[in-house]
Amino acid sequence: MSATPAPSPSTRSPRPAPTQEAPPKARGASRAVLKTEARLFLREPGSLFWILVFPTLLLVILGLIPSFREPVPSMGGLRTIDLYVPVALLLASITTGIQVMPAVLTGYRERGILRRMSTTPVRPAALLGAQIALHGTAAAVSMALALTVGRVAFGVALPEQPVGYALALVLTLCSALSLGCLLCALSATTKAANVAGSAVFFPMMFAAGVWAPVQSMPDTLQQIVQLLPFGAASQALAQASSGHWPGWSHLAVPAAWTLVLAGVARRRFRWE
């Protein structure tokens, strides 16, 4: 019996070319989590009210006060309502990061949802990322709504330095979401998260100028609140509104708070 000749190099079956690795299942599962969380988020009227409606509603109530629509000589001819538009934008960040998001995440941990997700292709980090993305987007929409209402309803001038204004808002929102992650990391239950959030919420509202605009505070008090992310952001927004680039020190404060809070939250965060 004659031996079968070995195929020549020209007739050998070519070795299949290496193919790119298919997208992991976790990636598709993460997208599914984002879609699911978005549907659940839109079904929460309480969260939607506090994030999307409350800041603009407060702005409208203040704008209906006649004296708030009159120029104030001590504030360079600005009206009180002019100062409260940036306050409403900061309030959207504070409400989102401190009041709403921590309760959602601690609720998932308390009900064991994160523990059960560990047995699926979805990583708990995908859920955390989805919550941050959804709440951050909702806060941005709330800011745009308040800015539009201030302009249309009360004639508040748009910022003359929009890039610096937007940068200050982004840094402030990042610091608020980082603070929310830290509150979730340190709170074992939803009740604890609500208590801790309330304890932080009111001082941050004061620093943002909800009760009195930062620009109208005494100099010593201004220097104190500017050490907090929302007090520094208030000054940065005021500078950008008047056409100046925000001071780097005012931008550095929320950026530094973001790095510190996010770092601590990452080390202390527990999925179970």
Describe the structure using short key phrases.
elongated, 272 residues, 69% helix, mainly alpha, single chain
How do the strands and helices of this protein lay out in sequence?
Layout: H1 25-42, H2 45-63, H3 80-110, H4 113-117, H5 124-154, H6 162-186, H7 190-208, H8 219-225, H9 229-241, H10 248-268
Strand content is under 5%
Give a count of the beta strands, DSSP E runs of length 2 or more.
0
What is the H/E order? HHHHHHHHHH
Q: Could you list the spans in which at least 5 consecutive residues all have pLDDT below 50?
A: 1-22
Count of helical stretches: 10
Cα shape = elongated
Explained architecture:
- Its main location: membrane.
- InterPro entries: ABC-2_transporter, ABC2_TM, ABC2_TM_bact-type, ABC_2_transport.
- Keywords: Antibiotic resistance, Cell membrane, Membrane, Transmembrane, Transmembrane helix, Transport.
- The chain has 272 residues and is mainly α.
- It has one domain (26-268).
- It is 69% helix and 0% strand.
- The protein is built from ten helices and no strands.
- The protein has helices at 25-42, 45-63, 80-110, 113-117, 124-154, 162-186, 190-208, 219-225, 229-241, 248-268.
- Helix 2 (45-63) packs antiparallel against helix 3 (80-110), helix 3 (80-110) runs parallel beside helix 6 (162-186) and helix 9 runs antiparallel to helix 10.
- The longest helix has 31 residues, at 80-110.
- The chain is elongated, with a radius of gyration of 25 Å.
